[in-house]
Amino acid sequence: MNPDKDDPNNHVPAVAPDDDWDSLNLEQVFDAQLPPRRAEATRSPKIDLNHKEVGLVYPASFPSDVVPRLSESHLKTYVPIHLKINSERVGGEKEDFLPALVMEDLKQRDFSTRKIQKPILQSRSQDVEQNDWGVVQKKESSRWMLYTALGVILLIVTTVSISYLNRDKSIRNIDENGSKRSTHNDKKKESNIDQDLLAQLANSNKEAIQIYGKYAQAKSLDDFTGSIYLSKSNTQFAAKAWEPIGAGSDWVPSDKSAWKNHQNGSRLFAELKGVNHNFSKFIAVFRYENTQLKMDWKATTGYGSASFTELKSGTGDGSEIRGWIESSSFFTQELPEERYHSFVIRSADKRDSVWGYSEIGSDADTDLMKLFATSSITGESIIEAKVILNMVSGDRGMLPQQWIIKSLIAENWLDQATP
Is 170 in contact with 162 (CB distance < 8 Å)? Predict the structure, then answer.
């Protein structure tokens, strides 16, 4: 770069007149001397490798007047130091550990032959490894497939055989006279009839409201006996126990009265729950007599062969008593707890009650215990239930309101007679 050339792009300033680079004398630079070396006395002591005497180590160049003069007593107090230095070995090691040689040795080293230590594992047999990984022989797989196929075939054959046996039993039965008759189709027809009646009964709430309205308006037996269940046989019982309700001639239960279907065994019935004209509650029971909807008068009124007024006095016919039953703990000397179970029997309106006793071990007692037993499915038990009982009065030693239960007729209040 020429600084004297006039170049607008050259921004280097021109050399100033007082710059002394041109007057630099190079001979002075090369003739410059380094600082003098230190005196011999100030240098670090040197070790005489060939010195074999025992004692203190001091520089060979130390002035004689500087070396301490020790007496015999002083020499005895010092511990002798023996220095055995192999000068050839020290010099060889220095040459061996030169950095250049060390790096060259690393470059020429062959790492391909380096051995990597592997962990020592316990040897296992091939069979054990196959079992661990789920690998089995083909013979075992085929054997299991064969066993599975045989089991499926045996299950199918057993199922088909049982179905044919049940079919034969259901199609052909032998009656008492030894003649064969078909029952499977009859049961199927009865099932279809029950379903049809149940569907018909579910839609009969309006008809039931009219029937009960007529019963509540009745002023004589003739006004309602035609609409009660088994009217021919029940009219005589109604004549003794019936009492008019006294509703007006145009009164009927509300359309919002509850209507619910029930089935007890082969008996289909429905309950109409509502409020009378005098705001008293009622539950009327309806069922079919052949194909006509009728009101079950006995179930509706809780009819009994004797009134609870009679039962409390120890009189009356206890052959058909409808009421609510629940467990009790009232015992007497004539009816001890060791021989009897005690119950309270309440009237249909729960205003009157008597005591009933079942002898432990009797059929009546077994049936009543089942009624109050805890369910194995739900774990629940009932406290009271609707029942029809057959009872007899006790001995003279018993109280008038104490009755002996002979049998449990039904677990509901339905009329047990059939058309």
Answer: no
